[in-house]
Amino acid sequence: MKKEFLKVTDLSVCVGDKSILNNLSLNVGESETHVLMGPNGAGKSTLGNAIMGNPKFEVTDGSIEFEGIYITDESTDKRAKMGIYLSFQNPIEVAGISLGNFTKTAMEATSGKRLRILEFRREAERILKLLAMDISYLDRDLNVGFSGGEKKKAEIFQLLMIKPKLAILDETDSGLDVDAVRVVSEGVRIYREEVNGTLLIITHATRILDALKVDKVHVLVDGNIVASEGAELIKDINSNGFEKYFAKK
């Protein structure tokens, strides 16, 4: 494994009075691509939200380290400024704020630098073209009236513009048709090539992984990781499902 980058140790997380994660540990090396799979309700999205610092997900035990710094108690915006990005499984609509303004503000907040409008729009146009999106999307309210595929493309657009060190992609390929999956997959591939960032991909399907070199696959069942192997594990899960992993809890 490369330089230790993300370290989750004995993490327990609850939402309200319901325990979701139980003493979960996970190590992700710098510039690696890790995949998190598991049945519905296993806690995959909870892990992503806990790493990002969503206050609805309460850490009751354990710790999260990012680049050697304990971030367990840090706010979501602090983690974003450190270079952590989470794409939403169901991106929300935000009326009154355009995709362009939202993305530019996020880029300035994470980099600590002001961006010139011309510089921003030039790079935005390049990225939008890669994602088969018209430049007019920049001036549309964030996700308002977007189809499911357009919302997911907008998430990848933000990923490629912000260029985080760690990208957590939560079911980015869910509900997409074949063409949309291809475009989103290409965006993720470009992120790995241009940014050389670290990926934690949460997914049920595996189409988004076709163009990627996967370093590690983790299976999460009932709030804990029960198997961690190489990319060959994907083929086994596609063929046989998760049934045998329930016995490993």
Helix count from the secondary structure assignment:
7
Number of DSSP strand runs: 12
- Portion in strands: 25-35%
User: Distance between termini?
Assistant: 25 Å
Oligomerization state: single chain
Low-confidence stretches: none
Major pleated sheet: 6 strands, mixed
Order of helices and strands: EEEHEEHEEHHEHEHEEEH
Fraction of residues in H or I helices: 25-40%
Q: Which structural class best describes the helix and strand composition?
A: alpha/beta
Any idea what the shape is?
globular
Mean pLDDT: 91
Radius of gyration in whole Å, from Cα? 18 Å
Strand order of the largest sheet: 6-9-10-3-11-12
Can you give a write-up of this model?
This protein has a six-stranded mixed sheet with strand order 6-9-10-3-11-12, sandwiched between helices. Strands 2-1-4-5 form a four-stranded antiparallel sheet, with helices on one face. β1 and β2 (18-29) form a beta hairpin. The chain is an alpha/beta fold. The protein contains seven helices and twelve strands. The protein has helices spanning 44-52, 76-82, 99-111, 117-130, 148-162, 178-195, 232-240, and strands at residues 4-15, 18-29, 33-37, 58-66, 69-70, 84-87, 94-98, 141-142, 166-170, 198-202, 216-221, 224-229. The two termini are 25 Å apart. The protein is globular.
